[in-house]
Design goal:
2 domains; about 220 residues; alpha/beta; five-stranded parallel β-sheet; binds adenosine-5'-diphosphate; 7 strands
Length: about 220
């Protein structure tokens, strides 16, 4: 199964992905995580990516696609993947279709998690991220069991620089301009299931599971 979790920064893609990968036994591919790892390794590509990420802008398509293709060439993707935060531009979506075709695969479903913009800033400006596994928390909305430590691996949680209110707002505006058109691209193919991302995490998870179980276009 090839699934995409689509939504604005802060809509809950990473949170819901954690559950779905366990449920379906497929790996999650988060281009945000891949790009942060590339930036941390200090390669030329990574430094270029970081400049864009720090400003809340999208990383150029050629860089993102390079990192993505490398990940997709690994053997664990054969049974399907859960994409989180990719594709974020129409050219990325077109290239993804081409790559999947080469693997004799196709996108099965795009789950659009819809959250109003004012709620997104609240969520992002408090977000705590595990630097080891990428899991996210929120001190009020989704607190970890132990103060500032990841439930899964006990690592100390950090606040991402690009989650500062000003950069978060920029990312949401970039999402509206550059990423929302990708939704139209998939709507035309009849692949989109829309679910509300409001309410508690378990509730949203149930909506997503119902949407996946429904026939194509279910949940809209
Ligand atoms: P969020 O989960 O809040 O949406 P991500 O971790 O997915 O954030 O992405 C962080 C940053 O990484 C983005 O603001 C952008 O700069 C870059 N990025 C991630 N995925 C892509 C992509 N598919 N195309 C371009 N830039 C990307
Ligand atoms: P994305 O990957 O789409 O950027 P995250 O999954 O990291 O979003 O979630 C953004 C923030 O909102 C995190 O701090 C997370 O703990 C919190 N969050 C996720 N889902 C919900 C929800 N249903 N209600 C309240 N807060 C949530």
């Amino acid at each position: 199964m090839f699934l995409t979790l689509f939504g604005a920064p802060g809509s809950g893609k990473g949170t819901q992905a954690t559950h779905l990968v366990e449920r379906f036994g497929i790996p999650q591919i988060s281009t945000g995580e891949l790009l942060r790892a590339e930036a941390a390794s200090g390669t030329k590509l990574g430094r270029l990516a970081k400049e864009h990420m720090d400003r809340g802008e999208l990383v150029p398509d050629d860089v993102t696609l390079d990192v993505f293709r490398r990940r997709l060439s690994q053997p664990d993707v054969a049974g399907g993947v859960l994409l989180d935060g990719f594709p974020r531009t129409v050219p990325q979506a077109v290239e993804l279709d081409r790559v999947l075709e080469g693997m004799d695969r196709q996108m099965d479903r795009v789950i659009f998690i819809k959250v109003p913009p004012e709620e997104l800033v609240n969520r992002l400006s408090g977000r705590l991220t595990c630097p080891v596994c990428g899991r996210t928390y929120h001190p009020v909305l989704a607190p970890p069991k132990n103060d500032r430590l990841c439930d899964r691996d006990g690592a100390r949680l950090i606040e991402r620089d690009d989650d500062k209110a000003e950069t978060a707002r920029r990312r949401i505006s970039v999402y509206l301009d550059r990423t929302l058109p990708v939704l139209e691209y998939y709507r035309r193919k009849g692949l989109v299931s829309e679910v509300s991302g409001e309410g508690d995490i378990g509730e949203v998870r149930r909506r997503i599971m119902d949407a996946i179980a429904a026939p194509h276009g279910g949940g809209e």
